[in-house]
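Practice problem: predict the structure.
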Amino acid sequence: MKVILVNGSSKANGCTYTALNEVAWELEKNGIETEIFQVGADPVAGCIGCGVCLKSGKCFRDDVVNTFVEKAKGADGFVFGSPVHYAAASGALTSFLDRAFYGKGNIFAGKLGASVVSCRRGGASAAFDQINKYFTINNMPIVSSQYWNQVHGNTPEEVRQDKEGLQTMRTLAMNMAWLLKCIEAGKNAGVELPQREAPIKTNFIR
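Answer:
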């Protein structure tokens, strides 16, 4: 079983990474393979709705998004982390998620999702809610913790002083590991994913 943790911060080893690393450490401790995937500091273009990926399975922009989508096919769960920018996820992660999820629900359906946010002071819950919406529109069970998945601090050193925040990260990891093992046990017992109906699209303009 494998979980990919996506760092949506331009800082490879900053506050968001510190939170994700705490999650990864606890997941590994519980027997789950992990990989921290860096979105990086290069600009990530937003989705333009051209539909190329719906036909080819890949975005015409051959960048970090396509790399992630290929890795996502072999993962069982995801943790998306972001710094809080104006009470929202980073622009880079937002563009990344828009393109990674668009038209690719079959890759993510039934797999676990969780979000982690890092802020200096405020805006964490709004950013947390924003990221979770990608899971709820793609048939992904959301993993919870003992509090909203957030850490506070302006530097990695300050984040490491947020004892409650780090404990929340570890609890999130323990819950995710437990759920992954439950899903695996269910599959081994013959419990299959739900057979879903064909999507119905309703346009409210008549």
